[in-house]
Amino acid sequence: MNMENNQVTIIGKIKSQPVFHHEIYGENIYELKAEVKRMSGVADEINVKISDRLLDKEYGIGDVVKIEGQYRSYNSLSNGKYHLDLHIFADSIFRYDGAEQQDFNSISLTGFICKKPIYRKTPLGREISDLLIAVNREYSKSDYIPIILWGRNALYAKGLNVGAKIKIQGRIQSREYQKTNENGEEITKTAYEVSGNTIEVFDENNIYTEE
Question: For the chain (length 211 residues), average pLDDT per consecutive 10?
Fold first, then answer.
């Protein structure tokens, strides 16, 4: 099934072998990691979940594949704490041998703002807004996707109300950060989010004016 409000296409290299994750309704779901490079050469690591019904062929580490599907979320329990697990749920996967386009990373999401946008500036003065949107899917479920916007899009987004319906187009990105654990040790964690290139608001009444 291809949902118009949640569409992802990536072309990149398989970074890990498929590993069994869970079973649902008699269908075995596997997890793998794909690596997609940006124009800068920095690589984004993307989690992919895929049915065994699509894994009728062997895929190896380093194989270039095209994956289409939706970007999904669920709360995963680890070490007694919940964290947001973000991944592509694949509708299709196949080996890609096209010479004209590799390292492709595109996502389109239409959803509703769940929390007041957080606006800030980097030490160098670059503007950033963080959003969390709910993207509806079948069976009355929703996926909660963190979005990051830059520059004029960040400035525009900071004035949006909770509940505003928006459309984001951009790419999936991963980034590492340092965190101190309960033992006082510095550990490296990976955050996943959507970096938006464009934002569209469906109801201009959902934009407020600051006093």
Answer: 84 94 91 94 94 84 94 79 88 83 92 95 93 92 96 94 95 87 80 95 65 39
| 85 φ, ψ (degrees, to nearest 5) | -95, 120
3-class DSSP string for the chain: CCCCCEEEEEEEEECCCCEEEEEECCEEEEEEEEEEECCCCCEEEEEEEEEHHHCCCCCCCCCEEEEEEEEEEEEEEECCEEEEEEEEEEEEEEECCCCCCCCEEEEEEEEEECCCCEEEECCCCCEEEEEEEEEEECCCEEEEEEEEEEHHHHHHHCCECCCCEEEEEEEEEEEEEEEECCCCCEEEEEEEEEEEEEEEECCHHHECCCC
Q: What is the pTM (predicted TM-score) of this model? A: 0.89
Task: Quickly tell me which residue has 């959902």 as its tokens.
Answer: 206
Q: Which residue has the tokens 């980097």?
A: 122
CB 145 within 8 A of CB 71: yes
